[in-house]
Amino acid sequence: MRFYNREKERGLMEQLYRTGPSFLVITGRRRVGKTELIKKFCKDKSALYYYVDQNKSIEILMEEFGRFTATNLNLPEYIRLNTPETLLEFLFSYDKPLVVVFDEFQRFLKIDPSFISQMQRFWDLKGKDSRIFLIISGSSVGMIRKIFLDGGAPLFKRADNILTLRPFEPKDCFTILTDLGITDPAVRLDLYLLFGGTIYYYPFLFKYGCTDLVSSLESLVLSDIAPLRREMSDVLIEEFGKEHATYYEILAAIAEGKCAQKEIADYTHLEPTSLPPYLRDLVDLMGIIEYRVPVTEMGRRSKMGRYLFSDNFFRFYARYIYRNMSQYQSGQYGPIKDRVLLEWKAFSGWAFEEMVRTLLREELAPRYNRIGSWWNRRGDEIDLLALKPDGNLAVEIKNRDLSLSQARGFLSALEKKIPLVKGLSGPVTLGIAARAIEGKEILIQEGYFIRDLADMGIG
Which residues have a Cβ under 8 Å from the Cβ of 414 and sit 6 or more positions away? Predict the structure, then answer.
């Protein structure tokens, strides 16, 4: 599968390389494509890629990095680079252009925080006179912030740029699926709703000959030799070790719709006061979930916050694999597959709403100050609410084809929710977004905001 997108990011990296010495930080959640981007950039360049393994001591890491450096730069045997001091001294004194990558750099906070301080010292003393392009990569957004962005951070303001890699946009994923030979729009939509914008999963579709949702489930998940069989557990165990089971339980609770902190605590039988560190890890360290408040309460303290998945596949795994692990481990895949297919339209509705919100946010952002969803304690919800002082937009999102009469019914129900939103100023335009809408031209002429998948560039 060819390399997709990231033109802006690659352009920035090439510019920093040409105008070195430079210092770039790349962050973003796991599986989002950081390593592939770095490998693509480093191709045909003199480069050293160091992976920071949290299960190794600083002594073992330096021994490994030293051997790797000597081998790749063809150094004489008498040069020994087996301590942080000798390795950094060599890298910053190397007399040829050199790209140096430290992947999962934030793990030094656990392994040996003094390495980060030494990195600061060498950059301050020798960085400007070096020929190095230093790239720091990390999947922990929160820990990267602690190292580079917080006041008093060890490497505060040292980086030329901090690049946060986002998941691929829906339109990009649909292009990738088309290039993989999946031409049926409904199938492309199903696969996007399963995997979302996490590019890591898409090459498996090609490698395993998957052509639709069923074959993807059977080949990639529901099999003794499926490549994604242990995807969620492997990631959690790697990051959290023996505590991974607690994180698993929290994710399973959220996958079951328990989104408030008290609901999660009740579901997992954990004390509410013990939850915040785990939730912060899942938000900041892993990027698997995110915390949201109603769009009307953005920018202020709110007791209405919800924890929601930001990763489609992890939500699927927590819902259907983890909660049925005994059945799964015993190889009883058929009943699990049957349940997934029976519930798929309802289960994927949330992912569909997220996709549409993403597409509409891109369209509406130039015209509105705030865009998000809204809800209250009573359970009333508006899927998308866009706000500005002189007029607002409320949109109902439906993961289905709608007749004209059905669309009118949803618009009527939406209109009744508007008085429940406190603090709205200006008129409110009502709208519907769905897979397809019969008679949409009539509704548009009547002043409604109407979008179907074709209108949003997804077909």
Answer: 382, 394, 396, 430, 432
Domain count, the chain: 2
Flag whether 366 is in a domain.
yes
Q: Is residue 86 part of a domain?
A: yes
DSSP state of 169: P
Token digits of residue 229? 């069989």
The yes-or-no verdict on residue 98 having pLDDT over 60 is yes
* Rg, the chain, Cα only: 25
Is position 277 within any domain?
Answer: no
* Cβ neighbours of residue 281 closer than 8 Å, sequence gap 6 or more: 239, 240, 247
Which CATH number do you get for residue 27? Answer: 3.40.50.300
pTM recorded for the entire structure: 0.87
Taking a C-beta distance cutoff of 8 angstroms, is the pair 138, 105 a contact?
yes
Domain region containing 372: 352-452
Provide the residue type at 395 as one letter.
V
Whether residue 359 is contained in a domain is answered as yes
Q: Return the percentage of the chain with pLDDT > 90, whole number.
A: 79
Taking Cα atoms as reference points, which of 153, 90, 143, 150 lies closest to residue 117? Answer: 153
CATH number at residue 414: 3.40.1350.10
Give residue 3's pLDDT. Answer: 64
Convert the pLDDT of each residue in 156-200 to its tens digit. 788 899 888 888 999 999 999 999 999 999 999 999 999 999 989
**CA 26 to the chain's CA centroid:** 14
